[in-house]
Automatic annotation (TrEMBL):
The keyword Cytoplasm applies. This is Chemotaxis protein CheW. Signal peptide: none annotated. Residues 21-162, 192-337, 366-508 form the CheW-like domain. One of its GO terms (biological process) is signal transduction. It comes from Alteromonas macleodii.
């Protein structure tokens, strides 16, 4: 998400207070319940493809390319509870917006989006001193629900920023666990179904969670399609994928949805059409129900043009709420088959236009990088700093009293060349010697050093516009890996290694002086 989607918190909070309730996103982290204020939540997405960051903080999972923006993703369990999250099909990343930009937090499961009356929201300042968090705003305490802890998005985001503590060591704000006997977690029942509930014309509907890829805000620009079906709003570029956007309300025979701040796009997956985004008025919550709680659709609803668009209904809150579960297969097959088939060429054309935007780039606007592999990820160094690439010799002369990452020296055409294991230098475990390994020789002020990499991929020409500053995650990472190449069309993030920092090594200089 870009900062264009942020909004005035003060104004929003005032509006909520006037309505007498506040909206939250509830989720599980290691079987404990937490919430984010909905106003701070930009998106809820599946776990994206990420690149890990060497020398980054331990709670960081990696960097993701989110629609052309670099999104840092952190393990919320590691931050709050000191344990690592075990990912599964229901694991999600909640993208939040703060004054520092967009940040993703990995959670075990999103439970629901719901509104809580103001009198059930207890501010931290009104709580006892024994219940305290650096990252907690307060709790939500409702008589018929478990207590949920409200997290401070701003404090969480700021805590991930680089802070020096005694030299290069990094430290996060300390936390205390909430010891609350009132919070009792029941084991999740694998037989339960999960539904994503949303509103259309003040009526409630749902998709099965397994059919939902992600939930995103409605972008400011949707590419209009001439002569398209009324339900098809156009095309959007979602992280390099061109997908059609459909007004779900219109597709099932209701009125057009008025798009506003509460509107969302629910992206679903179909075997024939791929990903399709459905615009809904508001996403309300995610519920877990058993099969016994589902009721068949009355036969009158399966007549005529509406045949089979609903597969079941679910009653909640003692029958006060009626949620209709939409049959996605029939929506595609009966309401959208011709409309989506007709825009297939438009999707291809839009994709080709996105890929062809840079065809007139001048050579002066480009740089060349040697791209190589370390621990399954791509890194790059400028070709101007690279002297040569050579095989790893069978034997390296060891140098006593040097760091573990300095593997030894080799005589390269009459010159003493120190050789460093780049994996070890970046804080990764060493690997076994293989035929694919190479030594990339970098040079600075006539000083040369060789770096062992897992393999060399290519020499790539990149447009300078694709190079940007990397998020600052630790002091050492900021020195070694302070820039990255972001290739949206190829869905790649290549971290650029700064050779000057690597070559300015006292241990290497001392080793050279011994020979």
């Amino acid at each position: 998400m870009s900062n264009d989607n942020t909004f005035d918190e003060t104004e929003r909070n005032t509006e909520q207070a006037a309505d007498g309730e506040q909206q939250f996103v509830s989720f599980l982290v290691n079987k404990e319940r937490f919430t984010f204020p909905m106003l701070s939540v930009g998106e809820i997405i599946r776990v994206p493809t990420m690149v890990s960051v060497p020398l980054g903080p331990p709670q960081m999972i990696g960097l993701a390319n989110l629609r052309g923006n670099v999104l840092p993703v952190y393990d919320l369990s590691a931050i709050l509870l000191g344990t690592q999250t075990q990912t599964s099909d229901v694991t999600r990343v909640i993208v939040v917006e703060s004054e520092l930009g967009s940040v993703g937090f990995l959670v075990d499961r999103v439970l629901r989006v719901y509104s809580a009356p103001n009198d059930t929201v207890i501010d931290k300042s009104a709580m006892t001193d024994s219940i305290a968090y650096d990252y907690m705003l307060g709790i939500i305490k409702q008589s018929d629900q478990p207590v949920e802890q409200i997290l401070d998005v701003s404090a969480l985001a700021k805590a991930q920023a680089v802070t020096k503590q005694d030299g290069n060591a990094m430290q996060l704000s300390g936390m205390k666990r909430i010891d609350n006997d009132e919070v009792q977690e029941a084991e999740e029942d694998d037989s339960l179904q999960q539904l994503v509930c949303f509103s259309l014309e003040e009526q409630e509907f749902a998709f099965h969670l397994q059919d939902v890829e992600e939930i995103v805000r409605v972008p400011s620009e949707i590419s209009q399609l001439p002569d398209s079906a009324p339900a098809v709003l156009g095309l959007v570029n979602l992280r390099g994928r061109i997908i059609p956007i459909v007004d779900l309300s219109n597709a099932i025979g209701m009125m057009h949805t008025d798009i506003n701040e509460a509107s969302r796009i629910v992206v679903t997956q179909n075997s024939e059409f791929g990903s399709v985004g459905f615009v809904v008025a508001k996403v309300s919550n995610v519920v877990s129900i058993s099969d016994s709680e589902l009721e068949s659709v009355p036969s009158v609803c399966n007549d005529g043009a509406e045949s089979g668009l609903l597969e079941a209904v679910y009653r909640s809150d003692g029958g006060k709420r009626l949620v209709s579960i939409i049959n996605l297969s029939n929506i595609y097959g009966r309401a959208l088959m011709s409309a989506l088939s007709s825009i297939e060429d438009d999707i291809k054309q839009e994709s080709q236009m996105s890929e062809g935007n840079d065809v007139t780039i001048d050579e002066d606007d480009c740089e060349q990088y040697v791209i190589f592999w370390i621990n399954g990820q791509e890194y790059g160094v400028s070709i101007d700093d690279t002297q040569e690439i050579t095989r790893v010799p069978e034997k390296l002369e060891s140098v006593p009293s040097t760091p573990d990452y300095l593997k030894g020296i080799v005589n390269l055409r009459g010159t003493v060349l120190p050789v460093i294991d780049l994996r070890s230098r970046l804080g990764m475990p060493s690997s076994e010697t293989s035929e694919r390994q190479r030594i990339v020789v970098l040079t600075k002020d006539k000083q040369r050093t060789g770096f062992i990499v897992d393999g060399v991929a290519e020499v790539k020409t990149v447009v300078r516009q694709t190079i940007e500053n990397a998020p600052s995650l630790s002091d050492m990472q900021s020195e070694f890996l302070n820039r990255l190449i972001k290739l949206n069309d190829e869905k790649r993030i290549i971290q650029i290694i700064e050779p000057n920092v690597l070559l300015n090594d006292n241990a290497v200089a001392a080793a050279q002086q011994q020979y």
